[in-house]
Amino acid sequence: MSDAFYRVGRIRRAHGIRGELVVELMTDEPDAIFASGCRVFAGDRLGDIAKDGQQLIVVRASPFKGGLIVAFEGIPDKTAADTWRDRYLLVPESEVAPPSADELFIHDLVGMRVIRGTETVGDIVEVFEVPQGLLMDVRRPNGKTVMLPFDDNTVTHVDSDARVITVDPVDGLLD
Fold it and tell me: What global pTM score does this model have?
């Protein structure tokens, strides 16, 4: 098994008194990943499993405000659930279907070079998921960063093999 793990969710908070957790989804396949009996691992935002590598087994999951309410084995009450706040849920790379030819995993964007025409805009250092979509935090050659939306209005081409994203941002966005 590969040592790589993918983020599939983030625990936001406890829900109720029975140990259930509100999970923000970071996957297109929540029904498969959070099905009863499936396992996920506790980890951090970089996709590294926690020192203890704690495995969590899904007991049940139900939709809740764009995410899920999930019950895991071994988390019996609100007190225990509160200790899981802001932890990331990960699955091994070997258990995730690869993206299709015209898709990328969000975490694959980090490290890609961003260009506008022949000008190097910078390198992506982080990607944020916000209600409006994805924002790329791009470190400029001068060391400053700029936030660019990853949308059809800004991104004109993605070359995943060369790890280059071509953008045409609105005037003033790079200033």
Answer: 0.69
